[in-house]
Structure formats: C-alpha cells, structure tokens
Amino acid sequence: MTIKIARTEAEVRKCWYVISLLRPHLTEEVFVETVLQMFSEGYQLAYIEKDDEVVSAIGFRYLQMLYNGKQIYIDDLTTSDKVRGEGYGTALLDYVIDLAKANNYDCVTLDSGPTRHTAHRLYLNKGFQISSHHFVKKLS
Fold it and tell me: Residue 64 belongs to what H/E stretch?
C-alpha cells in the first residue's frame, strides 16, 4: 500500500468520494474549497488508492495544547465499504502514529461519533483510550 499526500486541487478532489462517506453533509465543491483553505492551517490529507481509486483517506493536523502537549489530531479517517476490513484504515492510522513518534509528539488524538463501533474497535485495538467527552455548542 502506497500512502500519498494530497497537495493539489486535483488530488483533493480524488479523495471526495471516500470522504463523502464520512462527511455526507458536504458538497464536493465545499469539501475541495475547505480543504484547500485548511492546508494553510496545517491540515494534511493522506490517502491510499486501489485500482486508481481512492479507497481510504485520513485528514490530520499538528496541535499543541496545555492539557496533553504536542499532538497530531485526526480530523477524518474513512475507508470505502468496498475494501473495509482489508487494512487500509489501519495503514493510514499507523502512518499518523509513526509521524507523531518520529517528531517526538506526546500523543495522537481524535473524536469519533458515538455509533461508529467498528471504528472504535480499531482505535481501541491500536491503544487509544476514551479520555473525555467532546462538547459542541452550535452558533448558527
């Protein structure tokens, strides 16, 4: 499996289908425009292709916070239903964990929807711990 980093609009657009499975509220145009803006904020989008189709993608960024130090925060991790269970999501998760270790970061963090039990199993198997509740107050 070769992990690639999206750097261009065309590469971001190639990731649209698999990201739309996780973020169905977005349109393709909003997704592409937003990711291109997020690049300037340090967001990175890595992906794996199979037969010239993106089948798994992970979006992440480097952060530093007082409560847990230097970290990579995973914004998005998704795999196509067609290949789920074949190790693509695990490969991307391991890639980000290895980046954090190589840069002497303190941890890798993410939020996950409460009903994503298959994803939770992966995270727990990789040594993640459920450490908090995440609260959101929508302003619009």
Answer: strand 53-65
The reported pLDDT for the residue numbered 114 is: 85
Inform me whether the pLDDT recorded for 101 exceeds 90: yes
Instruction: Give the helix/strand (H/E) hosting 2.
Output: none
Are residues 48 and 55 in contact, defined by beta-carbon separation less than 8 angstroms?
A: yes
What are the structure tokens assigned to 100, written together? Answer: 């954090």
Residues 6 or more apart whose Cβ sits within 8 Å of residue 64: 70, 71
Q: Which of 103, 115, 123 is nearest to 58 (CA)?
A: 123
CA distance 46 to 30: 19
Strands 107-110 and 69-79: parallel
Query: Do residues 121 and 77 lie in contact, with contact meaning Cβ atoms separated by under 8 Å?
Result: no
> Residue 7: in which H helix or E strand, if any?
none
Residue among 88, 79, 90, 126 at smallest CA distance from 107 = 126
| Strand (E) or helix (H) holding 104 | none
The answer to whether 31 touches 16, Cβ cutoff 8 Å, is yes
